[in-house]
Fold:
Amino acid sequence: MAAPDPRALVVDASEWFHDPAWAAHVPRRHWRRLPARADVALAAALQACERHHVRATFCVDAATAARWPELLRRVVAAGHDVASAGHEPIDLDTVAPAARPAVLAGFARAREALEAVTGRAVRTFRAPWPARGDPWWREALRAAGYAAEVLACGRVLPLDAAHRGDLPSHAEVLVAWELDRDQPRLLGLPARVRHRHEARLVGAAARWERCLAAGPWAAPAGPGDSDPVAGAVVRPAAPTAAAANAANAAPSPAPARSAAAPRLAVVVPLKDEADGVPSLLQELDALAADLADRAALEFVFVDDGSTDATAALLAAAVRTRPHAQLVRHDRNRGVAAAIRTGLAATDAETAASIDADLSYDPRELAAMLPLLAHADVVTASPYHPRGGVHNVPGWRLFLSRTLSRCYRWLLRSDLHTWTACFRVYRRAAVVDLPQAYPGFLGTAELLVRLLRRGGRVAEHPCLLEARLFGVSKLRVLRTVRDHLGLLWQVARRRIS
Structure:
């Protein structure tokens, strides 16, 4: 009887939030604020392979290699091979022809970074997200000297004719993040999508053990020899300085505040948001860097009576940020009251308020600020014809849209969205407006009072997303009831 054709063993070392099932639900903008845990998964995968004396090909992206170069060197030292998964996952089927050269250049830089870290040539490519359309990248990989591509289905596609006979036809693909049972739980996803991801964690260790014990597996070849999956694995010359810098460079420091840039006070109301504070701070630091040439940002954090660690985390953050301050309410007073407190705590002529759960992309402020030249308030507008919503339950969306239509009709206004907290203000126009409703209702009240006093409100179409961390403070039925009461007050012209 002929010996069975040995299969190749491939380990997908992508991040837990790079699950292809989440591609349509966790936008790329959230990746930088989600905790990277590929090191945990990689360490667990290495231990599993060691227990079974199995060698594999680890598919690693350049971002992971830059974060944990020593761990990647451990992979190579243990006799495993390394394949490139690009810089970070990208849907190759959606790349426009004009953007393809830039993507291919990114592949080349990622390969250089991996080789700089490992000291080994990288000859295998695997796209972590399935690609089913025209394989436009394949000829470029062949020209670059890749020996093989591992497809999403596990088939090994030879790219180098010289090694075609050395490659197995199939690879068993194991996903490392399935071994990480302690990864965070994202709330703002459709239940079916979240459950599908979490189901892969159940029994993953046992599945790995069964697979690793099944064999036989094609072992990677030594330096200079032919590898069953990755082709020739050779130790290259000393890495170039450019490649080493690409792999190990530290993040660039935030640019200095420009003395000529106008001040912008960003008010952030928070209530029991300890789970999301670290990612919030990361996004705000990135925002300050992005807007440095247009605005000198200062942050006003308003702790609205939190009972968790929110206040302590913010106090620590303020100590390391010279242009930030923390204001505290001794009890929960509501989001509109918190925004009002933040506006009163600064003397900047221009202010903004953003949601602590980052349900709007803070970088939209760059497009909203110019609109303030002809308005007193610029509000984010997901219900604008060019706006949108993502992962928000349909019933909640229906209620919110209906209430906004009621305000629009009663006030004979063109505004589509009345309840967003994500806004830019000409501070002098709003800081002294009366406030009867300190909670969520107060966001609509502010626009009503401003418009009835001759103020101007502009809309910026935005995408509204469900929060990823923590629990919403919105009590839907109570809020709907209160909005109906406010609409009655508006109809009787008692709000002015």
Q: What stands out?
A: The first helix runs from residue 38 to 51. The radius of gyration is 27 Å. Residues 42 and 448 are 55 Å apart (CA to CA).
